[in-house]
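Notes from the 1:1 (GR / supervisor)

We went over the backlog. Supervisor wanted to see one worked example end to end before approving the batch request, so GR pasted a single chain during the call. The sequence is below; no edits were made to it. Supervisor asked that the structure be written out right there so they could see what the output format looks like.
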Amino acid sequence: MRGSNKQVMKFILLISFMAMVISLKTIKAQEVTTSAGSQEANKIEYKAEGLKDPFQEEEIEAPGIRALPSMTIQGIVWGGSFPQAIINNKVVRVGDTIEGVEITDIDKNRVTVLFENQKYTLSVSSPVSSREPWKENP
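Structure output shown during the call:
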């Protein structure tokens, strides 16, 4: 009887194993159909219409604040009792206003201006050399 007991046990184990394999296949098949259905239900579509490009730089201006007008210093006359500057081809001195910009100070290498309650310093782009151009270097 011992031999038949072993055979019965082997048969029961084989049946149990086959039942587990069949149930696993059934569960996996249900997961596949459920996940395929949920992927379609949870599918998110991205539309960028009307949105800004995050990689494109954008100029930001505060409301009510204008940018300083273009100001080019052509020259500065400094050292006398009334320092003057040539800005945008116009001769100006402290207290003058040009294009809505008030001249507040004229120094040897720069002009300080006031625009929209903000102070700005304009520097001479190419300072004049103190060397006399007609003399050659020794």
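Supervisor's comment: Residues 1-45 form one domain.
Batch request approved.
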